[in-house]
Amino acid sequence: MTKVLVSDPIDQAGIDILSQVAHVDVCIGLPEQELVGAMADYDALMVRSGTQVTAAVIDAAPQLKIIGRAGVGVDNVDVTAATRRGVLVVNSPEGNTIAAAEHALAMMLALTRNIPQAHTSTMAGRWDRKRYLGNELYKKTLGVVGLGKIGAHVAKIAQALGMVVLAHDPFISNERAQKLQVRLVELAALFEEADYITLHIPRTNETANLVGDRLLKRMKPTARLINCARGGVVNEEALADALRNHTIAGAALDVYSSEPLADGSPLRSLRDNVILTPHLGASTAEAQANVAIDVAEQIRDVLLGLPARSAVNIPGLSPDLMEELRAHLSLAEHLGHCVSQLAGGNVQELEVRMQGELAAQPSQPLVTASLKGLLSSALGERINYVNAGLEAKSRGIKVLEVKDEASRDYSGGSLQLTCRSSSGLHTLTGAVFSGDELRITSVDSFPISVPPSNHMLFTRHRDMPGIIGRLGSLLGQHNVNIASMQVGRRIMRGDAVMVLSVDDPIPESLLEDITSIDGIREAHTVSL
Ligand SMILES: NC(=O)C1=CN([C@@H]2O[C@H](COP(=O)(O)OP(=O)(O)OC[C@H]3O[C@@H](n4cnc5c(N)ncnc54)[C@H](O)[C@@H]3O)[C@@H](O)[C@H]2O)C=CC1
Ligand SMILES: O=C(O)C(=O)COP(=O)(O)O
After folding, report:
1. What pTM was estimated for this model as a whole?
2. In this structure, are 302 and 270 located in the same domain?
3. Residue 282 Cβ < 6 Å to ligand 2
């Protein structure tokens, strides 16, 4: 029975989708050790930001196939550990964009008009009309750090409020910024010029503590900072000092370096110029339904053997591309599996050469599929599209990608894998024929045309009379039935290759006898 664990609050719509294909357990707020102890037989885990999916949690789940993050940021998931284990990580890149953007705008408006403080004061019986004099956003400058989905929506609404918008985002083009009517500037300039600064960046090694003393000191004393992106991006000690010393006018935070916010946080000792909310950016009914449905559908699909649409740890492989390349991905896996067995020994290098029309396709998926095939002899089911690249890297296998558009051997192009191992070098080429029929079209540059089959025998031999007969007789003596046989040669009486499809595996002892036939230089068995 397929089992899914939901360890953070997830909208019922998502639970209902999961329940179509699995038994669903909802266990909210488990401490890490209890979560580790609970993972043994779960096939999928669904979380938000509350669960820390550590390597220990992942390693305690031998059945785990997918981790679904019902939201954007996956910094609470050890993605490297998941990838190493071949566990897919998916998220919902757009499900809570509007919610988070509107929360940032709400925080900016509340901050500039002192709404929480004025509310508390009025509820306490006071009538402080002078104390809570605010500022208008109209004609003020907003600095957006991170002009992605949320940042861009915040910019659009701010412009509707009459604000001028600057942005800093090293990965956004000037064309994109111009289209958004936003001026791209350096980070320091943004902090100097903006009246309001809003952060919409992920927490990465590069963004950790990005906003500290240095940038805070560049802010105008009338400027305000909003962070509804990720804690840890802002140095909270430095911010508390700036607020306490009134070197900036205020700050509104929804996220913190560690959550829940510690009782002893310096932010808790501030009053009039700070607003704190408990990571509410995505907490709207609409967003929670969106992300729950989005991620539950992906978990369901993956458990049914279908591709996921928002995989975090399979770069460049969208479902559409997977469908378009399906036959060539299968060819790559077969060639990888075959060439690793031909090469034998310790694989040192794999060259993946995309030829003809195939060279126009993105290389990543075909390289990943080739590596999956190459390593499947050693790793079996443990290798997949998620971890093939990481496993190859961890084994020190050098991977070369070559695109050869000039080659015009087959319609649809062809794929050539060259594997260098401690035992030598072998090259296999293949193509996809009509009806998605896979064919191996050359072995070590000798032309053949055979479909990959479960049990194959490859020989390298001298092209001379009688050798085929002797091989056939030997196999017959050992009751090995030949399903097909092809010989490939470049010149008469030179070297040649033979590829046989046989009904049964060829034992090692028989392989030794085959290799001892006069004229046969090499013989390799390949089992798919
Ligand atoms: N408070 C909350 O509940 C929520 C918080 N978030 C946070 O907001 C972040 C942004 O979300 P989206 O806009 O959907 O992501 P996104 O990926 O669409 O945009 C992030 C942008 O940040 C930019 N960026 C990355 N590193 C940068 C750097 N060093 N300096 C400047 N820009 C940089 C990227 O180029 C990208 O354009 C998420 O990573 C998540 O951490 C998202 C949703 C809800
Ligand atoms: O989507 C994100 O990145 C968020 O931070 C939302 O967090 P949550 O799912 O509300 O715990």
Report:
1. 0.82
2. no
3. yes
Q: Is 259 designated active site? A: yes
Q: What pLDDT tens digit does each residue of the chain (528 aa) get?
A: 999 999 999 999 999 999 999 999 999 999 999 999 999 999 999 999 999 999 999 999 999 999 999 999 999 999 999 998 989 999 999 999 999 999 999 999 999 999 999 999 999 999 999 999 999 999 999 999 999 999 999 999 999 999 999 999 988 889 999 999 999 999 999 999 999 999 999 999 899 999 999 999 999 999 999 999 999 999 999 999 999 999 999 999 999 999 999 999 999 999 889 999 999 999 999 999 999 999 999 999 999 988 888 899 887 677 778 788 989 999 999 999 999 999 888 899 999 999 999 999 999 999 999 999 999 988 887 888 888 999 999 889 999 999 999 888 888 899 999 999 988 999 999 999 998 999 999 999 999 999 999 999 999 999 999 999 999 999 999 999 999 999 999 999 999 999 999 999 899 999 999 999 999 999 999 988
Q: CA nearest 365: which of 404, 399, 403, 318?
A: 318
- Expressed in angstroms and rounded, the spacing between residue 215 Cα and the centre of ligand 2 is 26
Whether 133 is covered by a domain: the verdict is: yes
ipTM value > 0.90: yes
Of 428, 441, 247, the C-alpha closest to 337 is 428
3-class secondary structure, 90: strand
Residue type, 21: V
Q: Which residue has the tokens 């040192």?
A: 348
Assigned domain for 199 exists: yes
Ligand 2 centre from 521 Cα, in Å? 62
Q: Do residues 5 and 39 touch, judged by C-beta distance below 8 A?
A: yes
Same domain, 406 and 321: yes
Last residue of a domain, one of 452, 468, 486: 452
Q: Report if residue 282 sits inside a domain.
A: no
